[in-house]
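lol forgot to send this yesterday, sorry. struct tokens for the thing we talked abt
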């Protein structure tokens, strides 16, 4: 499937909706206006790709709602060349948004089917994350740490301590915390031992699951 002027028009409308819903970071909005979300969906859902909704992807997972992607990306305050760790690659849409913002993205996915699919698909779009890995996001990527920021895109019952340890001082960890529903939570690392916590209302994600490998 192609990216056409019609799709660009739909993306512009989506960007307007996201502004109305409170997204102000122009670099986030610019990335959303450039990444062709319809190509990340199974063809039966592609017509709805620019509605602000989550949709099913392979392996029983979901592609996050655009507002959620924009909200989490805004909380990260990504700067060009920042090293960002993402937990839950899924469709690769959030990965692509962070790459479009100039981040060096490291992403982990525990479903092999999605890991393989996304590893092939993103380069076809000209999107090159620094590192895609198949494994357990609870552990982070100690060999590549520390990170400027970390984003978790599945609902986490707890904050995995390895992720806190892999964050630079001054870095930001954005994680939806909870079981049935989640509270979007931002941790800012103040120094070696202290983290400042901020909470931003309720969201719904598929669960961050324990290691199955
Ligand atoms: N960022 C994705 C969101 C996908 S949904 C997107 O934009 O499409 C969340 C993803 O987290 C799912 O693909 C799920 O398989 C993955 N996931 C769940 N538990 C995980 C874990 N422990 N480690 C890595 N990925 C995990």
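and heres what i got for the seq, position by position
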């Amino acid at each position: 499937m192609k990216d056409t002027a019609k799709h660009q028009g739909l993306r512009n409308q989506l960007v307007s909706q996201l502004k109305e819903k409170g997204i102000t970071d122009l670099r986030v909005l610019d990335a959303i206006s450039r990444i062709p979300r319809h190509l990340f969906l199974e063809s039966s859902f592609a017509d709805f790709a620019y509605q602000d909704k989550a949709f099913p992807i392979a392996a029983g997972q979901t592609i996050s709602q655009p507002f959620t992607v924009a909200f989490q990306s805004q909380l990260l305050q990504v700067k060009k060349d920042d090293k960002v760790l993402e937990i839950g690659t899924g469709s690769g849409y959030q990965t692509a948004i962070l790459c479009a913002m100039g981040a060096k993205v490291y992403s982990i996915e525990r479903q092999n089917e999605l890991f393989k699919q996304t590893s092939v698909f993103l380069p076809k779009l000209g999107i090159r994350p620094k590192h895609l890995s198949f494994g357990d996001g609870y552990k982070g990527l100690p060999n590549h740490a520390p990170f400027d920021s970390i984003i978790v895109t599945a609902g986490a019952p707890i904050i995995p301590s390895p992720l806190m340890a892999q964050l630079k001082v001054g870095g930001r960890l954005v994680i939806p915390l909870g079981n049935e529903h989640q509270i979007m939570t931002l941790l800012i690392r103040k120094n070696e031992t202290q983290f400042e916590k901020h909470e931003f209302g309720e969201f719904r994600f598929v669960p961050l699951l324990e290691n199955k490998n």
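Residues 61-64, 87-88, 90-91, 93-94, 108-111, 114, 136-138, 153-154, 206, 208-209 surround S-adenosyl-L-homocysteine (CB under 6 Å). anyway ping me if u want another try
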